[in-house]
């Protein structure tokens, strides 16, 4: 690709720039956090939306996709308004890594919910009912019957969330403060170099691609292993 | 029982903090001074044109990506080819790439000196480039929704149908499609939402010409960053949000009554 | 029933969308950087109200200066280009899209001017008056990132030149920049994002263009600004492209931008006019500063672009890298 155009040594130079390395590390940590939190919260939300009954459920269901449809610059503006020093709710996490994490959780929210939801809808309740009639506890039913069936969907969802989190630009651009070594994530670093240092931008893009490809492949591997194991 | 309430309030509480607070603030800021500023902002001719362009792009990109997504999902799950693991991972890449990089790649391919430079019609800075960029970034969603459901339902029913002499198309239409339609529906909603909201890739290849190649998200950026017009930016965003909600409601209309419990209809 | 209803709605939506309408009459394409959007919002209709501008539609595109220059090179149609800095115009000259003699008009090719200012909190609690105050311990500075924002480059050169003006050696001036950037708490991607950050409560002082500060005040944002004694003269280049040169309407629009009427509109939206007769009417709004200098004073764009902004070896690249060392 373009990043390799200047030769391997040049690529390595550009990729091992300490500022680039710091941005990449921060991005990966944040994305790992996004994956862990989404796996739990996304599954819980999908469960509540499919199995629970309460007033206003339809509305909640309709709101889930909004983070995608809202232009990210507006998401960024509102997150700033919520979390900045002049905040309307008085929480100052803007310009910190917590603020970045919240912004990423906002834009990745729909993924796990929307991958788990159709599987839960398709899941036979009869199996669970059978297990219950055989005297299995709720936890055991979840662990033995529901969880193995949901796992591929959860993994699909977190893979998407991870991919989105490492590449996200719009939602973090205002709230990060973009300080090198502190709150500068990879996408901001790439954006900053696209015009002035295309080689540096391309190098980090290629690195991100390789890492995400590796992560996505290994998530795919776990997914395959889990489904085979199950059969 | 207690567990159920804990789960309900935990899930809704999380939604409240992460999702609802920002969205509520956007709506509040838009309608702070009533309907009039909202209406004035979205009936501005440039905003109307931007909305039309966004809808045109979405109405082409979503069906194409839906068909591709279903076919690709079937290929990944039903045909265990050695390269499918790689294809499976590649499908997610449009998300992992920074959209700005996607746009720049399009410029490299279609711009001066690119492989596809000099086509008989204009690509960059006009409709085709906007469409290409949008399709690229919204490609993964239908695939990702369909694959886990295809895995979950297995192949028993399809095989039974085949033994009974049903053609593969009839099997697909009668057995597979009803089983995955929920997944497809969510995939379409996500694809649609992403197409409506895409900014980064489109901003690089559209040229952002007001009233010509400016999509609604570019209009939002222009209103916010260039014209100092926050009301315009918020109003256009709310319009996009409403479009996304409308899509979801349209999709839920496809849901037959008897299916509410999640039984597998055939 | 419901299903067909949904399909009908979708079909109606598809039919209701006409293809993008083509406009009649002559069209002139203006490609500009982002900050003059508000000014052109007034200048364009004023042009269309003149005899020369009747029936001329102006297609407008606004974005970051560098991005716009790149888009024009990649094929974005442009007859008139208005950019933030001269190096961006130079790229178009190198691509043979703008004639080499673009800067040979009465105004050196520039259509508007501005200066770098300090935007401060009401009451100025940290008593910021001079460039040296910005580098004092505990002062929080907001400026965009010099690698993404043209405005940030003006800020850096203003700070550097002001030190030279105060009798420092180039080495001392670079040491000052290093100290200054240790006080920077937010390096946003653009001047507008930096203003947004400052308005949200971050930092004690924002470095930005005078026209940006004036525009913010006109939008009743709670800011006031101070023009330091020594600051840089910002000059924004304007040119006809080769396609624009052969179009009478594009030339008419270009000439109109230097008319007293257009220059007055620019002045009212915060820009310092280049036409002297207009500038005289606005001396109160745009006070002269005793130690104003131009980019030539610090070496000119050709020199400083590599010396300061080379992404690997430039002074600013080293300073940014140093931020990582000191914070561990």
Protein traits:
heterotrimer, A: 231 residues, mainly alpha, MetI-like fold, 0% strand, B: 266 residues, 2 domains, disordered C terminus
Any overview of this molecule?
Chain A is mainly alpha-helical. Chain A has one domain (2-230): MetI-like fold (Orthogonal Bundle). Chain A has helices spanning 8-15, 18-51, 57-63, 66-69, 72-83, 97-122, 125-133, 138-167, 186-193, 198-230. Chain A contains 10 helices and no strands. The longest helix of chain A is centred in the N-terminal third of the chain and has 34 residues, at 18-51. Mean pLDDT of chain B is 85; it is low at 257-266. Chain B is an all-alpha fold. In chain B, helix 3 crosses helix 12. The two termini of chain B are 33 Å apart. The longest helix of chain B has 34 residues, at 45-78. Helix content of chain C is 45%, strand content 18%. In chain C, strands 1, 2, 3, 4, 5, 6, 7, 8, 9, 10 and 11 form an 11-stranded mixed sheet that branches. In chain C, strand 1, helix 2 (37-48) and strand 2 (56-63) form a beta-alpha-beta unit. Mean pLDDT of chain C is 89; it is low at 14-23. Chains A and B meet through helix 2, helix 3, helix 4, helix 5 and helix 6 of A and helix 1, helix 4, helix 5, helix 6 and helix 8 of B.
How many strands in all of chain B? 0
User: Could you tell me the strand content of chain B as a percent range?
Assistant: under 5%
As a percent range, the share of helical residues of chain B equals: over 70%
The CATH architecture designation of the largest domain in chain B is Orthogonal Bundle
User: Which two chains form the greatest contact, residue counts included?
Assistant: A-B, 81 and 82 residues
* CATH superfamily membership of the largest domain in chain B: MetI-like
Sequence of secondary-structure elements of chain B: HHHHHHHHHHHHH
Structural class category of chain B: mainly alpha
Outline of this structure?
The complex is a heterotrimer of chains A (231), B (266) and C (328). Chain A has ten helices and no strands.
Which helices and strands occur, and which strands form pairs?
The complex is a heterotrimer of chains A (231), B (266) and C (328).
Chain A (H helix, E strand, L loop, with lengths): L7 H8 L2 H34 L5 H7 L2 H4 L2 H12 L13 H26 L2 H9 L4 H30 L18 H8 L4 H33 L1
Chain B lengths: L1 H30 L3 H8 L2 H34 L5 H7 L2 H4 L2 H12 L16 H11 L2 H14 L2 H8 L4 H30 L2 H7 L9 H11 L3 H24 L13
Chain C lengths: L1 H14 L10 E8 L3 H12 L7 E8 L1 H9 L6 E3 L3 H9 L15 E11 L10 H4 L6 E2 L7 H16 L4 H13 L1 E3 L4 H9 L5 E5 H9 L5 E3 L3 E11 L1 H4 L2 H10 L2 H9 L3 E2 L2 H6 L9 E3 L7 H9 L5 H13 L1
């Amino acid at each position: 690709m373009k990043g390799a155009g200047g030769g391997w040594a040049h690529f390595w130079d550009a990729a091992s720039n300490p500022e680039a390395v710091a941005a990449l590390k921060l991005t990966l940590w944040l994305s790992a956090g996004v994956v862990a939190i989404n796996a739990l919260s996304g599954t819980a939300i999908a469960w509540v939306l499919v199995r629970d009954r309460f007033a206003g459920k339809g509305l909640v269901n309709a709101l889930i996709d909004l983070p995608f449809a809202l232009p990210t610059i507006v998401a960024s503006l509102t997150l700033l308004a919520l979390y900045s020093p002049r905040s309307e709710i008085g929480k100052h996490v803007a310009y910190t890594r917590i603020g970045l994490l919240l912004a990423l959780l906002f834009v990745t929210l729909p993924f796990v919910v929307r991958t788990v939801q159709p599987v839960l809808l398709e899941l036979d309740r009869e199996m669970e009912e059978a297990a219950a009639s055989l005297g299995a506890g709720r936890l055991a039913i979840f662990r033995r019957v529901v969880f193995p069936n949901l796992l591929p969907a959860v993994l699909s969802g977190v893979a998407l969330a991870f991919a989105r989190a490492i590449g996200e630009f719009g939602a973090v651009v205002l709230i990060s403060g973009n300080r090198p070594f502190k709150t500068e994530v990879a996408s901001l670093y790439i954006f900053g170099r696209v015009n002035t240092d295309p080689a540096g931008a391309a190098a980090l893009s290629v690195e991100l691609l390789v890492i995400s490809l590796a992560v996505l492949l290994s998530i795919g591997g776990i997914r395959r292993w889990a489904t085979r194991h199950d059969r | 029982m207690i567990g159920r309430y804990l789960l309900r309030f935990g899930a809704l509480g999380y939604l409240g903090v992460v999702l609802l607070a920002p969205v509520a603030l956007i709506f509040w800021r838009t309608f702070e001074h009533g309907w009039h500023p909202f209406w004035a902002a979205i009936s501005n001719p440039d905003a109307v044109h931007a909305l039309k362009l966004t809808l045109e792009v979405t109405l082409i990109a979503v069906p194409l990506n839906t068909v591709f997504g279903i076919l690709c999902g079937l290929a990944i799950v039903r045909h265990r080819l050695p390269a499918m693991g790689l294809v499976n991972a590649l499908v997610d890449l449009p998300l992992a790439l920074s959209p700005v990089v996607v746009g720049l790649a399009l410029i490299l391919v279609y711009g001066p000196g690119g492989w596809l430079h000099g086509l008989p019609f204009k690509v960059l800075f006009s409709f085709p480039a906007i469409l290409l960029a949008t399709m690229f970034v919204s490609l993964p969603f239908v695939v990702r929704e369909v694959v886990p459901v295809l895995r979950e339902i297995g192949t028993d029913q399809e095989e039974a149908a085949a033994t009974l002499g049903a053609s593969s198309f009839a099997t697909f239409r009668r057995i597979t499609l009803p089983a995955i339609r929920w997944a497809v529906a969510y995939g379409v909603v996500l694809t649609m939402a992403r197409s409506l909201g895409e900014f980064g890739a489109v901003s690089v290849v559209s040229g952002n010409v007001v009233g010509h190649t400016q999509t609604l998200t570019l209009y939002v950026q222009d209103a916010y960053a260039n014209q100092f017009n926050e009301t315009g930016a918020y109003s256009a965003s709310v319009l996009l949000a409403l479009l996304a909600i409308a899509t979801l409601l349209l999709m839920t209309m496809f849901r037959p009554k008897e299916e509410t419990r999640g039984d597998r209809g055939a | 029933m419901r299903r067909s209803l949904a399909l009908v709605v979708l079909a109606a939506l598809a039919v209701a969308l006409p293809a993008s309408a083509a406009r009649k009459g002559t069209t002139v394409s203006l490609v500009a950087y982002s900050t003059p959007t508000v000014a052109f919002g007034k200048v364009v209709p004023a042009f269309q109200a003149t005899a020369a501008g009747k029936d001329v539609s102006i297609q407008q595109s606004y974005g970051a200066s560098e991005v716009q220059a790149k888009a024009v090179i990649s094929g974005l149609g442009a007859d008139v280009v208005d950019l933030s800095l001269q190096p961006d115009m130079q790229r178009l000259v190198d691509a043979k899209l703008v004639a080499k003699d673009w800067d040979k008009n009465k105004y050196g090719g520039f259509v508007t001017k501005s200066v770098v200012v300090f935007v401060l909190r009401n009451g100025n609690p940290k008593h910021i008056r001079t460039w040296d105050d910005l580098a004092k311990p505990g002062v929080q500075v907001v400026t965009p990132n010099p690698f993404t924002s043209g405005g940030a480059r003006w800020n850096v050169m203003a700070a550097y030149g002001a030190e030279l003006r105060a009798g420092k050696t180039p080495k001392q001036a670079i040491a000052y920049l290093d100290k200054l950037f240790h006080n920077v708490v937010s390096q946003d991607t653009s001047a507008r994002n930096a203003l947004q950050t400052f308005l949200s409560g971050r930092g004690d002082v924002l470095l930005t263009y005078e026209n940006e500060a004036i525009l913010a005040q006109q939008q009743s944002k709670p800011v006031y600004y101070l023009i330091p004694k020594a600051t840089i003269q910002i000059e924004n280049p304007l040119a006809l492209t080769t396609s624009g040169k052969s179009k009478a309407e594009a030339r008419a629009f270009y000439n109109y931008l230097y008319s007293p009427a257009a220059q007055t509109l620019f002045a009212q939206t915060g820009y310092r006019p280049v036409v002297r007769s207009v500038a005289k009417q606005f001396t109160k709004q745009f006070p002269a500063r005793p130690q104003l200098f131009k980019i030539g004073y610090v070496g000119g764009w050709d020199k400083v672009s590599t010396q300061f902004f080379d992404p690997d070896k430039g002074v600013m690249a080293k300073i940014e890298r140093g931020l990582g060392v000191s914070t561990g």
